[in-house]
Amino acid sequence: MEIPAWGQADKPVKSLANHFLIAMPGLDDENFGHSVTLICHHDEEGAMGIVINQALDLTVAELFSNAGLATDKLLHPSHSVWHGGPVRQEHLFVLHDSLQWNNTIQINNNLYLTTSADFLDALEEGQEPGHYLLALGCAGWGPSQLENEMSENAWVYAAADNEVIFNTSEDRRWNAAASLAGIDLSKMSYYSGKA
What we know:
By secondary structure, the protein is an alpha+beta fold. The protein is built from five helices and ten strands; from the N terminus they run E-E-E-E-H-E-E-E-E-H-E-H-E-H-H. The two termini are 21 Å apart.
């Protein structure tokens, strides 16, 4: 099944992997309202992604301390940890732009997802492994679930962009991702549905 190209300049796609899933203004959901989710994997069995614009009230230093890891060499102890989604919230996922880690999947040429402890070991030792985002939990959809939600105009999508993930402030990511799809969210109705 193809995903419709509404709000997207490109042709319809068969997989939303390596795309931002952008919540429409009318999506009233405690986990996904005004969210931007990087889709990391999508096939006929479902989809998995990481929400990139919902910071937790938790710093990297606090996360490390809670896990019994040393914090004295952290280069960015005050950086936020993110709410990656409502699934597997006890698991830490790392979006990053460096390749050398175990348990890593490639999302695009310079974007990866890992659950590897060696990434945390590097942070603990004061290494700077490029750009990264630490997220607790992920988002998940079962077979055809995401396609059905797309057909109900709950979401639009755009090709993923590392600039939005790593260099755009949290409060601007929703609008920045939507602009990649050619959409100005300030001009859209907060009601959604099928015409």
